[in-house]
Design brief:
single chain, 226 residues, mainly alpha, Tetracycline Repressor, domain 2, 69% helix, disordered N terminus
Length: 226
């Protein structure tokens, strides 16, 4: 059966990222930036985005408010930096899937493990909590995260399913829709539970086992027909 892409999938223009001041490149500056990001992750997770104060972050990280402003501009710049890093790390797991020569059942299982590992990092949990809590009040932040952090990942999955179906190793009628379904089946529950505090990085072994089961369930409907 020929592969068809989902005609209902919108081709949205990706929101542009507001410019952020250049981060100091000296080693000392790099270490300070890392400390700011670590402190911001902790404060966002503890207090939420709205209640978090830059002074709290500076106090925990050390350094000065001037250095923080020079590196990130403001609180929104900090959360953008966390989002960018998490998106990059998550994207690497799917890049490995795209280049994998393993059978789909092994390649997808490994990709699912890497996906849940990133979903349960404190930084990713902080990003999701901000997007969930502030999505209505700051739709541009929510839409940026979706356009840069969700949509490209589903596109990579769609390309993988297209390739594997054309090679006869999978049977996927609609790669775009299947990509969304796989994404949500593997990590949807992890995102929801980590956002509401019912799952933490300590639950990674359970999350990986759930991901393994999700991959098997997905493949039960996606293996080639005899």
């Amino acid at each position: 059966m020929p592969i068809r892409n989902n005609p209902d999938s919108p081709d949205l223009d990706k929101p542009s990222l507001p410019p952020r001041p250049m981060v100091e490149l000296q080693r000392r500056g790099e270490l300070r930036v890392e400390k700011f990001l670590e402190a911001a992750t902790e404060v966002f997770n503890e207090k939420g985005y709205q209640a978090a104060r830059l002074s709290d972050i500076v106090k925990r990280a050390g350094g000065s408010m001037a250095t923080l402003y020079r590196a990130f501009g403001d609180k929104e710049g900090l959360i953008h930096a966390l989002m960018e890093r998490s998106i990059h790390n998550f994207g690497q797991s799917l890049d490995e899937l795209a280049n994998s020569t393993l059978p789909p059942e092994l390649a997808l299982e490994q990709a699912a493990y890497r996906m849940v590992e990133e979903m349960l990092t404190p930084a990713r949990i902080a990003c999701h909590r901000v997007v969930f809590a502030e999505g209505m009040n700051q739709p541009e932040l929510r839409d940026w995260f979706h356009a840069h952090g969700v949509q490209p990942m589903e596109e990579l999955l769609s390309q993988y399913f297209t390739r594997e179906t054309e090679a006869g190793r999978l049977y996927v009628e609609d790669p775009a829709r299947a990509a969304h379904q796989f994404y949500m089946l593997v990590i949807g529950g992890v995102i929801l539970r980590s956002v509401n505090g019912r799952m933490s990085p300590d639950d990674l072994p359970v999350a990986k086992e759930n991901a393994r089961s999700a991959v098997r369930l997905f493949l039960s409907g996606a293996m080639p027909r005899n």
